[in-house]
Structures are given as structure tokens and as C-alpha cells.
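re the bet — no i am not wrong, look at it urself. input seq straight from the record:
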Amino acid sequence: MATENYSDPFEFPEDLPEEASASAGGMGFNAPAGFRSGFVSLVGRPNTGKSTLTNALVGQKIAITANQPETTRHPIRGIVHREDAQIIIVDTPGLHRPRTLLGERLNDVVQETYADVDAICVCVPADEPIGPGDKWIVNAVREATPRTPLVGAVTKVDKVSKDAVGAQLLALHELLGGQAEVVPISSVKDIQLDVLLDVITKVLPEGPRFYPEDHVTDDDDDTRMAEFIREAALEGLHDELPHSVAVQIDEKYESPTREGVLNIHAIIYVEREGQKAIIRGKNGRRLSKTVHNARLEICKMLDRNVYLDVRLKVAKNWQSDPKQLGKLGF
């Protein structure tokens, strides 16, 4: 199988911010009396802002975001540390009516996830009317976990008028049976995120810290690096191609010739030969930009210099091929 290699210069970026995951008070798990802790699943239709909300609540980018729906492909746990609580936010793929075996497996993952959490936050965007998809999701949640507390979040309130926000709050409150608290928020503008955390904290059980206070996620480095590459590759893509893109870290090792540099080799998979040309772009410029942008994110995450090399491969119809899905971790 023919492959194509693209890499990015290995100069270390000069403008890396300090890591947001710096220690927040040591590695202890002790908690004061009345401390609450638990897992909260964010559910909703694709592209309702769940990943952006996860990043905003955690205070660091742990979930990739893109304009295309169905960007998230595995549950991402982000840890929010508060004086009175430790909240583990579980960002899940958006529930949807599947068209491929991948879609079926993603839905299964979501349902398995929210069947084993302490609370569920149903997210709907302020700029789209509540429809059959939202009702289907809430019904599915209620059938699977009838006793799990629900919280509602109307996202993207910065995009609409106050009247529209009010109408959406009432609609979501009714959809959730008139019992759950509903909070209007904006992850981008940092509107009422603390209020949402207060509401979530109230429905969690008392318990210990599950993670050290300097942890922000339990995702492994390879998964996060692959996601950063996929996010960069998705930028500007349209139609069906985003669903056909998958990324896998092939290998990583300390550079034998460049002291302090980590060599990372990754593969971007697409389903058809013609899709490689789209990912590559004219004269390879689009893929070069993808590698450059992904490398910057990886440098920030690892807080070190890396050399990133990316190859393009075709895995024919991998979204519907059980063997290929297993190889790619689905």
C-alpha cells in the first residue's frame, strides 16, 4: 500500500502557555466532611457544544472541537476540582440515528456510559429548536437510567436574544418533565458556568476525591495526540469526508539525533483513494498545515519539543468493517 509522509519542522514553539494541569494542591485524595464527588455525563445531539463545555469547565483543552457533527468518538473524562466537590465530566459522542456500524457502536458506548454515572446533563443549543432528536435522547436516558438525576443546560446563549433563551429554557424544562433544574450557559463567553457546576454539585452524592488534584483527564497521551491530529485534519472539511477520517499513533521514541525531541509518527486513515487528495490539498499544503497545527497542540500538551510525521493511508469503508473498526479501537 502506497503511503505519503508529511512532517513539521521541530523548532520548539516560543509561546507555549504554562500547563493548566499544574498541581492544584498535591496528590492527596482526602476530602472534608460534606464533600461531593461523582461522574456527570453530558448528553445531547451531535454539535450541541458538549466538548466546548467540557473544556470550559475543566479549564484546559482535553476534548477536540469542530464545526462538524459527530466529532467526539469516545467518552472523554475531564476532572473539575472544587473546594466542595470533585466533578468528573464525561463528554460522550452525540446520540444519533446511526447510518454505519461505527455509528451503532458509538451509540452503544454512550448508552453504556450514561448507565453508570451519578448524574446526566442534557444539553440543547439555544439557537436550534427542540425537536424529535432531543425527545428521543431524553426518552432513551430515562429508559436506561430512570433514577439518575437530570440537569439541563441550554448552550450557546450568546448567539440568541434573551427572549429566545427564555423560550428554550421553558422548552427544555418541560422536556425534562418539569423536575430538573435548567441553566442557560455559554462556554465561549463563560456565562453561568459556575452556576451550572453549583447545580451539578447539589445532585451528586457525598464521597471522596477519585483523582489527584493535579489531574485534568484520564485519557492517555496517545489518544489525545491522535485526537489533536484529527481535529487539525477536520478543519475546513465539509459533507461526508469528516466522518471518514480516523487517526492512529503508529510509534513514538526519543530522537537519536536531536536531544530532547520526541519523534511521533501517526497515520491518518480515509476510506477512499480520492479522499487522500482532499486531505493532502494542493501541493501538499493542506496536510502540511494540519501537521503544523497538530504539532503545536501536542507540544503544549506534553510541554516539550516534538517532531511529528504523518502518513496517509486508505482503509476501505472502515466505518462499516468490523475488523477495521477493531483495529482503530472502536
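see?? The CA atoms of residues 280 and 287 lie 5 Å apart. told u. also The radius of gyration is 21 Å. so pay up
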